[in-house]
Amino acid sequence: MKISARNALKGTITEVQKGATTSHVKIDVGGTVVTASITNQSVDDLGLEAGKTAYAVIKASDVMVGVD
Length: 68
Fold this sequence. Notes:
By secondary structure, the chain is mainly beta.
């Protein structure tokens, strides 16, 4: 897989929650869970299910930093 995004985090899908049109896909990346909201059609097309390996691909033009 070649993509232009610089942040592709490999992990394991822990949960797929399907809604009416959108699914929430949770991916464990080294102990941190990243959640993606994608269409149900994409979940079906990619064959996403718990236990499978997947990438959380983050494409953003801005990164914000916060402190307490």
